[in-house]
Amino acid sequence: MKLDSQDLADLAVGAAFLGTGGGGDPYIGRQMVQICLDKGLEVDLVDPDTLKDDDFVIPTAMMGAPTVLVEKVPSGEEAVHSLKRLERRLGRTATHTMPIEVGGINSTIPLVVGARLGLPVVDADGMGRAFPHLEMETFGVYGVPGCPMVVSNEWGDSALIEATDNRVMEWLSRGVAIRMGGAAYIAEYAMSGADVKRTAVPRTMSLAIRIGRMLREAKASHRNPFDALLGLLPDTLYHYGRIIFAGKIADMRRETRNGFSLGTARIDGLGRWKGVMEIEIQNENLIARVGGEVRAIVPDLICIMDSETAEPITTENLRYGQRVTVMAVSVPEIMRTPEALAVFGPSCFGLKEPYVKIEELPA
Amino acid sequence: MKLDSQDLADLAVGAAFLGTGGGGDPYIGRQMVQICLDKGLEVDLVDPDTLKDDDFVIPTAMMGAPTVLVEKVPSGEEAVHSLKRLERRLGRTATHTMPIEVGGINSTIPLVVGARLGLPVVDADGMGRAFPHLEMETFGVYGVPGCPMVVSNEWGDSALIEATDNRVMEWLSRGVAIRMGGAAYIAEYAMSGADVKRTAVPRTMSLAIRIGRMLREAKASHRNPFDALLGLLPDTLYHYGRIIFAGKIADMRRETRNGFSLGTARIDGLGRWKGVMEIEIQNENLIARVGGEVRAIVPDLICIMDSETAEPITTENLRYGQRVTVMAVSVPEIMRTPEALAVFGPSCFGLKEPYVKIEELPA
User: Fold this and answer.
1) Is the pTM of this model over 0.80?
2) I need a labelling partner for A292 at 20 to 30 A (CA). Which of A214, A310, B11, B46 fits?
3) Using a CB-CB distance cutoff of 8 angstroms, which residues of chain B are in contact with residue A155?
4) Are residues A32 and A101 in the same domain?
5) How many domains does chain A have?
6) Are residues A175 and B171, on separate chains, in Cβ contact within 8 Å?
7) What is the ipTM of this complex?
8) Are the C-beta atoms of residues B129 and B18 closer than 8 Å to each other?
9) Residue A318 CB: number of other CB atoms within 10 A?
10) What is the pLDDT of residues B268-321, one digit of tens each?
């Protein structure tokens, strides 16, 4: 499937939704791919089922705090550089690239890499959403090592990390990314086509495009965009969703620390929504509570959207006074196994609350 | 020249002297090499003049804060691992290893690597003393790139850094070393035999052994060890030295920050030495002042020695109440050129005072 400008616009919106607040500003990523299209380059998204078992896929991404990215816009060459270094280390040429997460800029970095190198991009990812750590990938959960991996910056400096464990990879590469100014570009989890089919969350890129298109079309035809979106979900691996709160942002606390955007959003309820919702953020929205009661918890999606336009709002764009609607969505089963929860469940973020599926939480 | 246990004991003392307080505890490094000798391995130190121009030398070292090293003793395999990774990256096998600095543990790490791999160790280094930063090497001053370089830890994790500049190499690899617990093991500045002869400070290892032997023999024959040492210098590239102060350590301030040991030593004068000497430390002794007047300044050596035994004292072993004698020594001319001072002169450490050779400073 060759993507056009409209697809990119829809992808930016849908990826911001699936990114649950994280993954960086979708606008910047979209512009980077648009420049490729304007140059006549092709962006080719391919279904994971079309992969041959011995295809060789190198995922590419940005790592760092989204708040930094807004001030330090990438050229697109950084992630290409990382992929090329990794190819040289492995002595093998990639047949495809792929996202490691769906969300904001990391849905688009592999599109830029694919366009520049003439590589198709696999319609799948390793998080099924956005997560703050590189070990939090279904690839690793199901046995694909993240290393060797490469981190590069815009000056052509790079570090090739060979860690014995994906958590150590995250720890060391994050140290490099911080010293590269808080944002850097990576290639990691190189794997076979067979491993992609076994370990990736499939069709998340095309789902993001469908979500963006659905919201756009609902708006154009004056339908309720939230209803339209909730109507789309049962037909996908993210089969369940509901609105868990709506109100006005009363307080935003945020800081950038150790290379992450941390914060808390407080939302005063409006209309039928009573009380105050507090959403804790570590790059992404992790947990939503009202009066101390959990209303949704990681890894399920917690999406803060503009109440008027249904536009998903990334954490760095949350502002005092915005009227927002919060939607929670179930994640695919591959992300809800005990193995997966051991890597990106609530306890991995220091949360005391156990994981309870959104379908099973009281509304 | 095959080194024996006595040479190692002498080297530890002499390297602590040339290290001007830095380079780590000499005892730990000496034990690491002794274990190699006990296993029947050979430690072969070779003169740089014996190198063929197309020999291939990979220097090895520890990087990090000496204060950390005392608590996290290396096995010796870490630096071997870094050298092997670098060989793989460069597609070439090292004919020799070499120190990057003479001082404490970094005089001995290459001996361990050489013994384990059966490689001769070049009798030369890249600092002619100890310095806190990896770009502060005569290798780099005279055009040898530090990268690609490898940082490894005791678990077999590594990062291969390819930086466009030796300062960036230092910055990125330091970030990795900090995340490896504050001490890590490196291979860097891979170079030809011709480049060693052109850029290294020659015969610093054998000089350290000579210094250690001289101090030992002076003690055994009840000669004044300070006089003996000052008598040795004119015959070396470090041709000038003098005692600049003696007294009692009245105050030690120190902290470990950003992977470095920072501090200040205050010494109250005794006997003919009036006033208070303050010595500023960044891993090494950088500047000695009395009443604000400079008595010695980097890159010249500032060595704090036990007043009784003339044992050089590394910064982490300085203690309140110790009676110490401070000796300043001129460094080789290769370390005093404008190019060299631009990389490791006083301004590189944030000092306002210009470099004045110890020979030209008022006593």
Assistant:
1) yes
2) A310
3) 164, 168
4) yes
5) 2
6) no
7) 0.87
8) yes
9) 20
10) 999 999 999 999 998 899 999 999 999 999 999 999 999 999 999 988 889 999
